[in-house]
Design brief:
Blueprint: H1 2-22, E1 31-36, H2 44-55, E2 56-57, E3 72-73, E4 75-80, H3 85-94, E5 99-103, H4 104-112, E6 125-141, E7 156-158, H5 165-176, E8 185-187, H6 191-199, E9 205-210, H7 215-223, E10 226-228, H8 233-242, E11 247-251, E12 263-275, H9 280-290, H10 293-301, H11 318-321, H12 327-335
Parallel strand pairs: 1-4, 1-5, 2-3, 7-8, 7-9
Antiparallel strand pairs: 5-12, 6-9, 6-10, 6-12, 11-12
Helix pairs in contact: 2-10, 9-12
């Protein structure tokens, strides 16, 4: 209860402060803030667009308290479509993006320089918030089934695009069942391309980790139809042992037309990541703007996953990752009573 009251006070203060400042910066030069997302058919792109809208308050815009934008005064945030996690983290590290959405497992590996990124640490990565769980979708044509991932040997399989966190994780999972690039016909495609190829009979299955419902799969389910593989409890544990950031989850029945059963599947957290080069003041303002009432309305009325993006879950699992919070975000969470 105390945390809720403190957060409410902080949120009100944020709206008042940002609204009053916005009225005085109409002549200021804009600050551009690029957020790397993912493909248009996935979840990162619409969520990134909503966040960009919420944290923006371009010079000359109406003040928040007059019905205008309630973001950071002078900030123009832009959501850019990319190949997702790996690309976004690398671009943040290199200064090509100010922020990016990325899967927790990939972010940890890249920050530490572990696994596929052995010897190539990305020390500038900093977390602003945990956003929502990304459920792994293993999509197959209507009427198709497999018993486990080993059945994908010698099949035509979409492993997501190069530069995505999905591909990194999926290749690790498949290898544990003896499936590699050597004994499957893999396709490096984004979600929309994979759905199109599956519908045309050019793929036997494809993987994509994203927050449901995924637009391209909604369309596929309502036209050609599709199946989603439901993992056994034993297989979910095996995946968790291989990639601890992937935990058991569920895609409820009815999310996609024709999929009438609950689908058990692994999921990984999606994060908003920025560079340590960004000033504490800027990141404090962005974090503040992410959690004000105006952005709350945008998240609730946008993509279905937006409702799961809350300040109460913004720090879930972050401490265990070993990737630091940005000091600007940390300052906000402490003031809001969400972090000691």
């Amino acid at each position: 209860m105390l945390k809720t009251k403190l957060f409410a006070k902080a949120a009100v203060a944020a709206v008042i402060t940002l609204g009053s400042i916005a009225a005085t910066v109409q002549a200021a030069d804009p600050t551009f803030f690029r957020i790397g997302t993912g493909g248009a058919g996935g979840t990162y792109f619409p969520i990134g667009g909503t966040i960009a809208n919420g944290i923006s308050a371009p010079p000359g815009s109406r003040p928040c308290d007059s019905g205008g934008q309630c973001g950071v005064p002078g900030l123009i945030a832009i959501a850019q479509s990319t190949t997702a996690s790996v690309f976004n983290n690398a671009a943040v590290q290199n200064g090509e993006l100010e922020a990016g959405l990325a899967a927790a497992d990939v972010t940890r590996s890249m920050f530490m320089g572990e696994g596929k990124f052995e010897g190539k640490p990305h020390p500038k990565l900093r977390i602003v918030a945990n956003l929502y769980p990304e459920d792994l979708h293993l999509v197959m044509p209507k009427g198709s089934t497999i018993s486990n991932l080993g059945d994908l040997a010698d099949k035509r399989v979409g492993i997501a695009q190069a530069g995505s966190g999905t591909q990194v994780a999926v290749l690790q999972m498949l290898e544990a069942w003896g499936v590699t690039r050597d004994n499957m016909d893999e396709a490096e495609l984004n979600n929309s391309q994979s759905a199109e190829r599956l519908a045309d009979g050019q793929l036997d299955a494809y993987f994509y980790a994203a927050g449901w419902p995924v637009a391209a799969m909604v369309q596929l389910a309502s036209t050609k139809g599709m199946e989603l593989h439901s993992f056994s409890a034993e297989d979910l544990q095996k995946i968790n042992d291989i990639i601890p950031a992937y935990i058991p989850s569920k895609i409820p029945s009815g999310v996609y037309e024709g999929v009438s059963n609950d689908v058990l599947t692994p999921a990984v957290s999606a994060l908003m990541v920025v560079s340590s080069d960004l000033s504490d003041e800027l990141v404090y303002g962005i974090t503040q703007a992410m959690w004000n009432d105006n952005t709350r309305k945008l998240l609730d009325n946008g993509h279905a996953k937006g409702k799961q993006i809350t300040p109460e879950t913004a720090l879930d699992g972050v401490a265990a990752l070993g990737v630091p919070l940005h000091p600007g975000a940390e300052k906000f969470y402490k003031e809001a009573g969400l972090l000691k």
